[in-house]
Amino acid sequence: MSSGTPQQQIHLAELLAALSHALDITEGQPVGHCVRACWTGLHVGQQMGLKSGQLSDLYYTILLKDLGCSSNAARICAHYLADDLTFKNEFKKVDGSLPQVLNFVITQSGVKANMADKFRSIITTLRHGGQITRELIETRCQRGAAIARQMHFNDAVQQGILSLDEHWDGTGQPDKLQGLEIPLYSQIALLGQVVDVFFMNDGRDEAIKAVRSRAGTWFNPKVVDAFLALETDEAYWQTLARNDLSDIIYRFEPGQSARIADEDYLDDIAQAFAQVVDSKSPFTAGHSERVTLFADLIAEQMGYAEEKRRWLRRAALLHDIGKLGVSNSVLDKPGRLNDEEFAEIKKHPVYSKDILANIRAFGDIAPVAGGHHERLDGKGYPFGLKGDEIDMDTRIVTVADIFDALTADRPYRAAMPVPKALNIMREMVDDAIDRNCFTALCAAIAKFDQLPTADRQAGELKAVS
């Protein structure tokens, strides 16, 4: 099931087109949103006469425009008392006019809250909504640009992501840039986003109407003209609706032969997307990297070769990528989850497995991501696997995940001391977790605690690098 063998080189375009689907579910968008926005953006860019290198930068700007999208989810839930996924989807339809904004605030705030809390949320929004919106967008855009920088994209791509929500007339966020102060890639990416939101919700005519009505306000009229030149291009519209558009997009990338994802780059991509996942909730900050550290320590103790440990580190980094599709109203709930909420939580390993299984570079780690909440006695989730149905790689990540869950703060309790956590896990041996993995964890922790502070910090850096 788990090979741990070196990945073949793949085009970066293929990898990111597939991973963009994880960003789609974080934004509450139908899967394929970023890919469809990219299809539109590339056609607009071609209409405007962009050169191959410019089209390549535009391509990556749009595919990665939502890299920072998880960073504001917790605050949206806390302030608006709303499901962040539904909230984000509906917010993209608002044109900024006062009637639409007021209607949105009233209908989306406190959807599941009592009337008193709902009223307080609405009043706070009406009083401070501009500042709150600016801060949410600023966090999202700055975080997205920072992750793009970590993924080695140039300043043009970073700036394109940073200024995604700026508007031509200066009413956008976060810096109220105006006119040609806004990077062209941002202008085109925002248009591509709006086209897809309205196309998927209301159809072709409404998408065209939405863009035309925003000319001179949201959008540069020249960019709008370039899009309207596609109004009767049946091939463009028919392809926009295709289920296999992701495959078409990665083959369509301008100059794609120059962008190959080798083993080092795959490590960087895994680490970058782990940050996207961990930004979703204040209670999961650093979770994926800590699980990776603990899994690597266990694997080292169990005699795994370095090549296999590298593979396992990627699996640990991405094991929770499916949490991007779970609302923060569930992830951050301070009390006990009800049956409906727990059923939602139980979906995240399925999402993780499905996302990774569709990525050629990461397909062989999908079973680990999908199985990290299974138990040896068959009482885990989501598939009820038991015994030999759970491979050793998955067992290692499970033990690492449980250890971090117990020793880190959670919405419903404070972090446990390590000895208490290990005592709890000791009671789970052979029923829920693998004995050899737990023994290796204990041995690694004992060895770790004996190191001088400087050596221990160096070990941490090495294990997650």
UniProtKB/TrEMBL annotation:
Domain HD-GYP: 262-457
Top-rank taxon: Bacteria
SUPFAM superfamilies from the UniProt entry: HD-domain/PDEase-like
Pfam families (UniProt xref): HD_5
Xref: InterPro entries: Cyclic_di-GMP/3'3'-cGAMP_PDE, HD/PDEase_dom, HD_GYP_dom
Protein name per UniProt: HD domain-containing protein
Organism: Maritalea mediterranea
